[in-house]
């Protein structure tokens, strides 16, 4: 039989590491599948989805800027996808019903708590940014029962809206960057897109509690601007989001194939 077909849709998609990650998962688990990357501009999403399914597609990942459209397209949503308003994992069931989930948040929490052995319970957590990825990771972060999460964003109203949306799940507050003066955090997560331009949100020099952890959702072959900021400001650990990328992929793979691949060897392979 033909191997099942999967893909990642995004725009741009040129540098996606997802095909390599899923190929390594497939080799490791002995699953027969093909996984490709497709550049899909937002206005082509509906058509690309139809064409992919008609060609035997079994499931998809969606990345920037398509996660909200994937959310709209899904006929059945997981609780965490509904809460985040964004979908990064789609699949069709036997009855051709399209399901949507969001594995970004569990990917981040798994990388932090399992791979890096950073406990979040009882910690003071700062989340920088209030865009799509911040929304995707808040629910799973709050499920770890931190003491509190502060969302700091350039546009304060967006942070406030997020804090309201997630208020029922734990202690969440919102502010602008200037209000961080004098505050200390155990874990600082960068979910802004500033690292993409090699920039940083304006952060006070004494933001980190002793031994604090800095985590940049962005990843790169060289340390990102935020990873470097953490190292320069006394972080005990300052890492990029490659582990999260592999973990969110592993969760998607588990949903699609019913088997969870081991992530550590894949992360090690990508770091090389
Ligand atoms: P969005 O465009 O939805 O949000 C961007 C965020 O960055 C907003 O909070 C925005 O603030 C802020 N921002 C942008 N420019 C600046 C600036 N110059 N100064 C201060 N704040 C700024 O992006 P996403 O949430 O989708 O993605 C964010 C990052 O996360 C990307 O780098 C992406 O690559 C990464 N990512 C990594 C994943 C992984 O698996 N490792 C998974 C998902 C995302 P404002 O609201 O004021 O505009």
UniProtKB/TrEMBL annotation:
**Protein name as it appears in the record:** Shikimate dehydrogenase (NADP(+))
User: Which residues are responsible for catalysis?
Assistant: 67
Function recorded in the entry: Involved in the biosynthesis of the chorismate, which leads to the biosynthesis of aromatic amino acids. Catalyzes the reversible NADPH linked reduction of 3-dehydroshikimate (DHSA) to yield shikimate (SA).
* One term of GO molecular function: NADP binding
List keywords of the entry alphabetically.
Amino-acid biosynthesis, Aromatic amino acid biosynthesis, NADP, Oxidoreductase
Q: What is the lineage of its organism?
A: Bacteria, Pseudomonadati, Pseudomonadota, Gammaproteobacteria, Methylococcales
GO CC aspect terms: cytosol
| Top-level taxonomic group | Bacteria
| One Pfam family cited in the UniProt record for this chain | Shikimate_DH
Q: List, for all copies, the residue spans of the domain called SDH C-terminal.
A: 241-267
Q: Which gene encodes it?
A: aroE
Record's keyword annotation contains Iron-sulfur: no
Pathway(s) served: Metabolic intermediate biosynthesis; chorismate biosynthesis; chorismate from D-erythrose 4-phosphate and phosphoenolpyruvate: step 4/7
Q: State the oligomer form and interacting partners.
A: Homodimer.
* NCBIfam families listed in its UniProt record: aroE (TIGR00507), PRK00258.1-2 (NF001310)
Similarity annotation: Belongs to the shikimate dehydrogenase family.
Record: residues binding NADP(+): 79, 129-133, 153-158, 217, 241
């Amino acid at each position: 039989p033909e191997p099942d077909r999967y893909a990642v849709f995004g725009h741009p998609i040129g540098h996606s590491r997802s095909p390599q990650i899923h190929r390594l998962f497939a080799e490791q688990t002995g699953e027969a599948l093909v996984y490709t990357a497709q550049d899909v501009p937002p206005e082509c999403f509906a058509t690309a989805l139809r064409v992919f399914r008609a060609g035997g597609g079994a499931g998809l990942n969606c990345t920037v800027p398509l996660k909200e459209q994937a959310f709209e397209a899904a006929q059945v949503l997981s609780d965490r996808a509904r809460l985040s308003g964004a979908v990064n994992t789609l699949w069709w069931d036997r009855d051709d019903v399209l399901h949507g989930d969001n594995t970004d948040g569990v990917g981040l929490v798994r990388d932090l708590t399992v791979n890096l052995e950073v406990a979040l319970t009882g910690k003071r957590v700062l989340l920088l940014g209030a865009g799509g990825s911040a929304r995707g990771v808040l629910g799973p972060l709050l499920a770890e029962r931190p003491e509190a999460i502060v969302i700091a964003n350039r546009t304060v109203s967006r942070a406030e809206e997020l804090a309201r949306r997630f208020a029922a799940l734990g202690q969440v507050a919102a502010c602008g960057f200037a209000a961080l003066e004098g505050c200390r955090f155990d874990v600082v997560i960068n979910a802004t897109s500033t690292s993409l331009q090699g920039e940083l949100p304006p952060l006070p020099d004494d933001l980190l509690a002793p031994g604090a952890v800095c985590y940049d959702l962005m990843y790169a072959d060289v340390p990102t601007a935020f990873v470097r900021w953490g190292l320069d400001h006394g972080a005990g650990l300052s890492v990029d989001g490659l582990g999260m990328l592999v973990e969110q992929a592993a969760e998607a793979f588990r949903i699609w194939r019913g088997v969870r691949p081991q992530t550590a060897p894949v992360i090690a392979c990508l770091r090389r």
